[in-house]
Amino acid sequence: MLHHVWGLFAHPQEEWKDIRKENCSIGRCYCSHVLILAAIPPLAGFIGTSQIGWRIGGGDLVRLTVESALALSFLYYLTMLVGVFTIGKLIHWMGQTYGAQQELPRCMGLAAYTATPLFIIGIMGLYPILWLNVLVGLPALAYTVYLLYTGVPIMMEISEDRGFLFSSAVLAVGLVSLVAILAATVVIWDAGIGPVFTH
Questions:
Q1: What is the Cβ-side half-sphere exposure of residue 49, based on CA atoms within 13 angstroms?
Q2: Using CA atoms, how far apart are residues 31 and 45, in angstroms rounded to an integer?
Q3: Residue 19 in contact with residue 4, Cβ under 8 Å?
């Protein structure tokens, strides 16, 4: 796992070829990569929101209760696991349109390894300061998009032109999924199931 993580940052195109050759199963890909790396953002977020806290302007220190932070972190972790699986399934389904019919495990691997920068940058949750998280998160998001555009042609074994269109479609689906998750969060919080702050 660590070998692939380093390779995706140091030499992504060569690393995508190595990942393709492995033919990783869904279970192995999830257990050795997604389950571990996806735990970084919720764990950091739990510590940051319940132990360290944040200030809005010059106001008092704001923290979540341990119970509330734990529940939200668990939901965050679950959402990421489901999100990677769903994107992998959608890549597999959309492959027919772009002449890139690959096995489901390869599509799952593409989704899982593409999300690597977002998993790793989740460590910033230790310091829940909005401007800092946005400042550091935007380059990570940009590199995730770069990994998607370099990974699709290699993993799906299609031309770069067709891979560009395929990647754009996957990116659009990812953005729609993000908006749906944010909308669901607002609905859930409006129903009274939201964060509980310490006094």
A1: 21
A2: 22
A3: yes
Answer positive or negative: Cα dihedral of 140, 145, 149, 152: positive
Tell whether the model's pLDDT for residue 189 goes beyond 90: no
| Sign of the dihedral through C-alpha 160, 165, 169, 171 | positive
Secondary structure class of 25 (helix, strand, coil): coil
- Pick left, alpha or beta for residue 192 (phi over 0 → left; psi -120 to 50 → alpha; otherwise beta): left
- Tell me which residue of 115, 78, 79, 88 sits closest to 26, measured CA to CA: 88
The secondary structure of 48-79 as a DSSP string is IIIII-EESTT--EE-B-HHHHHHHHHHHHHH
Structure tokens at 54: 């944040």
Tens digit of each residue's pLDDT (9 = 90 or more) over 12-63:
999 999 999 987 888 888 888 899 999 999 999 999 999 998 887 777 888 9
State which amino acid sits at residue 191.
A
Tell me the three state secondary structure of residue 192: coil
On whether the CB atoms of residues 98 and 156 are closer than 8 A, the answer is yes
